[in-house]
Amino acid sequence: xxxxxxxxxxxxxxxxxxxxxxxxxxxxxxxxxxxxxxxxxxxxxxxxxxxxxxxxxxxxxxxxxxxxxxxxxxxxxxxxxxxxxxxxxxxxxxxxxxxxxxxxxxxxxxxxxxxxxxxxxxxxxxxxxxxxxxxxxxxxxxxxxxxxxxxxxxxxxxxxxxxxxxxxxxxxxxxxxxxxxxxxxxxxxxxxxxxxxxxxxxxxxxxxxxxxxxxxxxxxxxxx
Length: 224
Description:
alpha+beta; Transferase(Phosphotransferase), domain 1
């Protein structure tokens, strides 16, 4: 049924989102008993409808709403793909997406849940698929990839029209190939994960961070 997600508009109108400096997660103002927050990023927060859990609503901060039409266009170009969420539409300050079950790779590391190599292969295939659609897949990191029944599902495609390669996925793959076997199945402390995230935001040099925080010397000192 066309736009059968519109029922949530009234509840979403009770919520507003504001961004924060230094690329920190957004702040949420207001609430609704019919929505559950399931994700918070640097530009937007995502809510699941409790009445129709198949829908997720990505609500942008007031100063980031220009990204809505950009991301909607990217989803249109991606079309139907097993690697990406489905976009059903949107309004002035939010997109309507398919709710994706599973756990982010970030949470997998925190909880010590093994990340299969198939995930790496799936993301590589997804990036190639996006390139074939004329897009530039970038900004792919631990919080943007879900482990879903042993396969990868990628969320947040808002930067796919930007030029350049931020190399985030390349260095995550390098860390996975060279070091992940040393920590597989072992929870990574939250303070370490957040230190890496904050240092990356400050330095914008993921290569240096992978060597400093994920290298053999650090792992040997931290987990032994």
